[in-house]
Amino acid sequence: MAKILVVDDEPDMRLAIRNVLRLRGHTVAEAQDGPSALASLEGEKPDLVLLDIRLPGMDGIEVLERIRKVSRSLPVVMITGYGHIQSAVDVMKLGANEYLQKPFENSQLVDTVKRFTSERKPEPAAANAQPAEKEAAAAPGAARPLFTPARLLALAGAAAALLLFFRWSDGRRNYAAAHESAGTNVSSLVWRGGDLWVSDWLEQGLYRYALRGGKVALAEKVPLPGTHITGFAFGDDALYVCDSWAGVVQERTLEKGFPLARDHDLPGKITSLFFDGKYLWTCDSEGVVSRRRTGGDLPVEAEFRLAHKPDQIYKDAGAFWSVVSSSGRLYRHRLDDKLSVEAVFTAGDSGAGKPLSAFTWKKGRLWLAREGEKTIGEYGPGILRKAE
Predict the structure, then answer these.
(1) From its phi and psi, is residue 356 left (phi > 0), alpha (psi between -120 and 50) or beta?
(2) What is the rounded distance in angstroms from the CA atom of residue 77 to the CA atom of residue 91?
(3) pLDDT tens-digit map of 100-123
(4) Are 196 and 211 spatial neighbours (Cβ–Cβ below 8 Å)?
């Protein structure tokens, strides 16, 4: 069986791939970013690399370039959930062997790995050559035909597959869907597992929507009376709710109804919260973003002052996002010591004239709500427009 290197910054994705491949008898090595992947190439000597395009810092395309400088023959399968056409062109030029689009079935993964790791004994060229090719091979200096019927058929198949890929990619990038919301005063959107949790500041409660067949369906409402929710986040063992009207961040237990455990009276008027799996991020009305450790009094580990004074925040493995609701501008930040702004966008959805009251990302799609609208939009990244 083969040794396979899986390069992905999402631990859940690495775990899923590892489980599938180990059940088939393969040995699996893992890397969460580009530098560790390149280091593993030396030590692990893999037979195949499964490489995610979007990685923090050094992205998958740069890792592929580095791999090809070392080895032209090592099979590399790119994994992406974004379907960006320019990325597809780039990785083809750099020598990727195949693509897997997230989400993919286990059978697709297994078949792809089998195709690139099965032992094949090369057959003698003369035994398989067509008569004209045999003559060319037998005659030193004779020119081989550039296009044979088999080659033309293979090229036609590759062109058709590429065209389908581009059409599929464009569909993914420009995807748009509207989901009915139970309220028109959405203040925050948070994914927890397969459920979308939505806060309504006027109704003073949380709504849980279950994802079914590509649509969200209302599954539960949890009233939090007396709480004007401007943002919330699920931690490992608590629900954190910011009530900027009362000037507190509530810490609630994860029991039914989310009973209140205590209030945190933090400096500044906290408007938004985000939990990244390790830290609780807070944002106040003066644009001060704090990275806090959970537990105790939520001590600050790092602090950043953002000049545009956002009132909503989100973080993933590759970037930090902030939003100014009134202008509808989305800011993408580098994960450096200043959270430097690298790009500013607006969302070109049909409600673009209204304030952007809530947003989040999930698997490369932007989910957003507009003030006064009774819908939650789901969009591919093509919805974003560079702000002037």
Answers:
(1) beta
(2) 10
(3) 877 788 888 999 999 898 754 443
(4) yes
Instruction: Say if CB 193 and CB 234 are below 8 A apart.
Output: no
The matching CATH number, chosen from 3.40.50.1820, 3.40.50.1100, 2.130.10.10, 1.25.40.10, for 176-386 is 2.130.10.10
| φ and ψ of 46, to 5 deg | -70, 160
> Residue 151 has what pLDDT?
62
The lowest-confidence range among 50-54, 121-125, 254-258 is 121-125
Q: What is the CATH number of domain 3-119+149-173?
A: 3.40.50.2300
Buried b (16+ CB within 10 A) or exposed e, 176-204: eebbebebbbbbbbbeeeeebbbbbbebb
Residue among 367, 15, 65 nearest 188 (CA):
367
Tell me the DSSP string of 223-291: E-TT---SEEEE-SS-EEEEETTTTEEEEE-SSTT--EEEEE--SS-EEEEEE-SSEEEEEETTSEEEE
Encode pLDDT of 239-257 as tens digits.
999 997 888 999 999 999 9
Question: How does pLDDT run across 265-274, given as a tens digit for each residue?
Answer: 999 899 999 9
Tell me the three state secondary structure of residue 200.
strand
CA 129 to chain CA centroid, Å, is 46
Q: Which stretch of 41-45, 200-204, 279-283, 354-358 has the lowest confidence by average pLDDT?
A: 41-45
CA-to-CA distance for 2 and 78, rounded, in angstroms? 18
Question: In the 8-state DSSP scheme, what is residue 139?
Answer: S
Tokens for 199, please give them. Answer: 């806060």
